Amino acid sequence: MNMLKMMILPLIAASLISGLSQLDAKQSGRMSVCAFAYYAATTSLAVLTGIALVLIIHPGDASVKMDKFTPDDSEQSVSAFEKFLDLIRNMFPDNIVQASFQQTQTDYVIKLIADNENTTKEKLDIIARKVDGMNVLGFIVFCIVFGVVIGQIGEKAQVLADFFTALDLVITRIVILIMWYSPVGIASLIAAKILGIANLAETAKMLGIYMLTVIIGLAVHLFVTIPLIYFAISRKNPYKFMQGLLQAALTALGTASSAATLPITFQCLEKNNKVDPRITKFVLPVGATINMDGTALYEAVASVFIAQINGIELSFGQVVTVSLTATLASIGAASIPSAGLVTMLIVLTAVGLPTSDISLIIAVDWLLDRLRTCVNVLGDGFGCGCVHELCRKDLVRAEPPQVPAIVVSGDGSTTAEKHIESF
Fold this sequence. Notes:
By secondary structure, the protein is mainly α. 67% of the residues lie in helices and 6% in strands.
């Protein structure tokens, strides 16, 4: 796991900058539009699928909880709003070196202030502080701008483009060496998580229906929704494309981290599915950060489930709020294990649900985390495939013309003369 994490930062920088520096503004612009349209469509469909299933199956039982929660809308929306602003703050870090190991997080601090009449009053202060954790979003924004500008400058910045292209080759070779250890490492990670559950049977029984709802939702999205989108765009067999991503899916199940799976996803797309490297170098790092279909679906189901066990019937407006909040919160989910539990706080506070009830689902999150990460990774892979099909003509036009080599044949004529004669 540490070896894979070690490669995240150089892999994102090398792949993004080297890929974008080889594209002109028109190509990168079209690629961005296609990629973000795919991200928005799949994430929204994932949330709608999750909410529809959790409302139909209704896994939450209010009788299991003795103390019911009374929602309070006074302060929750402010907290959710600040969390969304954190996304914008992290997109533009004030120090790119610091962004490699810290990110911005807003906290509320209540201070007691004495006035002239010697009475104390409470004052709510908003403090934006730095917390440990790689600011992947800010790093990606910087690398995208860096790569695009290199491509626009042209020959004068060719030295930088060559440097990052060479760095990308070196990082890829190191990743291939790390992959020799992956069978042992992934098997050990899964075994350790299973052994860490005290009573697996009782835990699964207690939250079985909830788990079933999430799993059905993830399966519908992975095997129906995404393949239909890919087929509609490419007119190719989506399940054959999915077969090429099998190693990335298994790695996602073992690591529960889409960022740690990123090196393997690159290999699967470029070698097995023959996706253009110019597509993968741009679409994949961005998708691993903001395209979290499985996380969005999971957060929507879990939020409605928590409302159900508290006996709260969500109104249509609250369901819409959960949908939008889960979609946006998934963008800010870090590409690390159990990041969905952190961003779920945003969804719960948006509709005034108790954040303490997250502890009810932590017991089974180790399994669901791996499944939703697998959906996230495969969704990113299909995104590269869709963008590849939509931008295929632009990529072909951008390739330099292939000039046939002039070879003298036995009769004294050249291949070039034969080409002219046949023409």
